[in-house]
Amino acid sequence: MTASDRVGSRECQTGRVPDGPVRQESERGRWRVEERTASAAALHASWPSVEADPKTRAVARCRPTASAVVLGSTQPSAAVDPRAALTVDVVRRRSGGGAVFVSPDDPVWLDVWVPAGDELWDSDVTRAFDWLGATWVAALDRMGLRELAVQGAGPGPSTRWATLVCFGGVSSGEVTIGGRKVVGLSQRRTRAGSWFHSACVLHWDAEVLLGALALSEEERTAASGDLAAAVTGVADEVAQRSWAVGTGSIGKGAVGADTRADVIGGGTLPTAEMVTQAFLEGLPDGAVRIPPPHSTPGDTDR
Q1: CATH code where residue 39 lies
Q2: pTM score, two decimals?
C-alpha cells in the first residue's frame, strides 16, 4: 500500500476504529461545548453538531482514537515515507499548513466554530485568528506560563522545515513561549462560518513525526535539532522552570481552583484536561466547563 493509498484511511494496526465519533455535549452561555472521540480522519471530515446548528458558537476537544500524521490540505502524499504509511494512520485536513502528529492527549487538540456574522468572526482570514491566539495566551497565563506572545499579521520565526512541519514556523495568531512555538492554528472557512483547528503541545518530541516523513537520515537529524530549538511544550516549560508554591511566578489569574492546585502543587505536570479547562474558562462571554467523556455513540461519520 502506498502513502497515497493511506491518505484518508481510517485503518490502523489494531483494526478499524469505530465509525461513529463519541460525543458529549453541553451548552453554557453562548458556547456549545463537546468532547469528540473518533479517528483523526473522522474528526477532520465533519463536525455534525455544527452542520446541524451552524449559528451557534462551538468548541470541541478532539481525541483521536489512534495516533496519526495529519497533512495540510496542499501537502503532497509523497511527503510521507511509504514504509511509515503502512504502520501509522495518515490523513489530510482541509486547512493549510504543514504536517502534525496527533495522539489522544498530545497535542491538546481543540476545534472552535465561529458563525459568519458573529462578533468574533472576521472577513479577513489573517485577522480572524487574533482573538483565538489571545484566548490561548490568557489560558496559558492562567497556568503560570510566562514570556507568552501572539504572532501578529504575517509570518514569524521560521525554520527551513516550516512548509513540511506545522510547528516548524510561526504564523498569524499562533502562540510562542520565549520565542518557541507552543500553539499551532489553522482555519477552514465556509459561507456558514470559520472552523479553527488549534493544537497545544504538552511535551515536544518530533521523532515519530519526522520518522514518518520522506526524509533522509541526515535531514531527520537536522530537522530534529532545528525543531527542538524552535518548539516547546506546556509541561516541558513547567518542568524546566521548576516553579514552586510561593514563588509568585505561578497561579496568576482566574483558572479554576482544581486546575491551579494541580499545577502549583508540584506533584503533577499540566495535563490535557487542565489545559482544556483553562482555555474554556477564558472563552469570550463567560466561562464554560467541559463535561466528562462517556462511551455512548453519538455523531455519525459522514
Answers
A1: 3.30.930
A2: 0.80
